[in-house]
Amino acid sequence: MTPIIIAVDGYSSSGKSSMAKRLAREIGYRYVDSGAMYRAVTLWAMRNGLVRPDGSIKEDTLIASLPEIHIDFKVDSNGQSTLLNGENVEHEIRTLEVSSHVSPVAAIPAVRHSLVLKQQEFGNKKGIVMDGRDIGTTVFPDAEMKVFVTASPETRAERRYKELTDKGIDTTFDEVLSNVNERDRIDETRAESPLRRADDAILLDNSNMTVEQQSQWLKDLYNQIISRHENSK
Ligand code: DC
Fold this sequence. Notes:
alpha/beta; Rossmann fold; five-stranded parallel sheet; three-stranded antiparallel sheet; 9 helices; 49% helix; binds 2'-deoxycytidine-5'-monophosphate
């Protein structure tokens, strides 16, 4: 079967990563979490004093440092871990502190250009499931399968709150909800590749779906697209 590119975009904490990861495992594709790449750049900026006390970013220094920031993934017992200059930062990039600084970093055009190039490189042999915000619009506008996932902000905040507290991270539901709303606002209104559904992406509102139902929905869609793709050859 000819490998294809699968783009799974959507709102933060919409469950898109879990769905995308599981589909990739089931069909033997590579999975790339593009949000982890923006998070890793943010962590690098935080560690190097490029986030001012008011939350703004020292953009020029960050842009000049981009050639020194290398991001990769390794498959391990966690499924997959993100590497920042060879260091495993998978846990650190998921903290609320990184979450609260990532949107302004992801809004910097030079950061986006650099990460988009790297993401396109990951997909050059196809056989990939990538999730993010602009995968179906900017990174792989010709992806054979595009999905856009959404759920209400409250549902997403509840999921994120559970995920963080399960990991022992201390936070409150209100703090998580306000982070979700703020990230939506910045992601949707930034000038460069704002979060939006590609015209040819299939919409999934999973507010009332179990993880099992979402995964089945994605797998069914993949099977339909693959059979259409094979028949058209
Ligand atoms: O999916 P996530 O919550 O881990 O993403 C972290 C941030 O990175 C999010 O606020 C938006 C940004 N992002 C982006 O701008 N483009 C992507 N392709 C992926 C994530």
